[in-house]
């Protein structure tokens, strides 16, 4: 997990969770740019714009939190992309993405085939095509391989 911070926001990045939807790259290219190092520039947009973008990340690879003394409205800072969002939520939503993963929004316990059990929180994209190299998580292979299931 990597962190990029200003006095008003911390962006948390877990690369092995990214499903490569490119939503962040399209929605806020001045902040999320794979051509640059580091690829996240938290100074390039307002914390509110960054929050609105990360709220749309379907995999939970990007999350945010508000440091003590942040000037950001705390209601805004507890949206779907915030680190603590799912702790407070009792409802788990599962969205089936056409020709793509299952996007789970909520906290749940994942029991893997190797017997390991982990707690998941926030948004998580689970592979539906079986092609991901990071199963059970989606890594975007469905898109690169043109996987189609028509539902
Ligand atoms: S899954 Fe999240 S971090 Fe990965 S490209 Fe999409 S929006 Fe960005
Ligand atoms: S659904 Fe995305 S890699 Fe399988």
Overview of the molecule:
By secondary structure, the protein is an alpha+beta fold. It has two domains: 2-70, Alpha-Beta Plaits (2-Layer Sandwich); 87-144, no CATH class. The protein is 14% helix and 21% strand. It has helices at 23-27, 47-54, 85-88, 141-144; strands spanning 2-5, 10-13, 62-65, 93-96, 102-105, 108-111, 117-120, 123-126. The strands form three sheets. The chain has a three-stranded antiparallel beta sheet with strand order 1-2-3, with no helix packed on it. It has a three-stranded antiparallel beta sheet with strand order 4-5-8, with no helix packed on it. The chain is globular, with a radius of gyration of 16 Å. The termini are far apart. The model has no long low-confidence stretch (mean pLDDT 93). Residues 19, 100-101, 127-129, 131-132, 138-142 line the site of FE2/S2 (inorganic) cluster.
Fold topology:
Elements: E1 2-5, E2 10-13, H1 23-27, H2 47-54, E3 62-65, H3 85-88, E4 93-96, E5 102-105, E6 108-111, E7 117-120, E8 123-126, H4 141-144
Antiparallel strand pairs: 1-2, 2-3, 4-5, 5-8, 6-7
The structure holds iron/sulfur cluster and FE2/S2 (inorganic) cluster.
Low-confidence stretches: none
Give the averaged pLDDT, no decimals: 93
Using the 3D structure, state the CATH architecture of the largest domain. 2-Layer Sandwich
User: Mind telling me the CATH class of the largest domain?
Assistant: Alpha Beta
- Helix vs. strand class: alpha+beta
Please outline the major beta sheet: 3 strands, antiparallel
Helix fraction, binned, reads 10-25%
What hetero molecules are bound to the protein chains? iron/sulfur cluster, FE2/S2 (inorganic) cluster
SS strand fraction: 15-25%
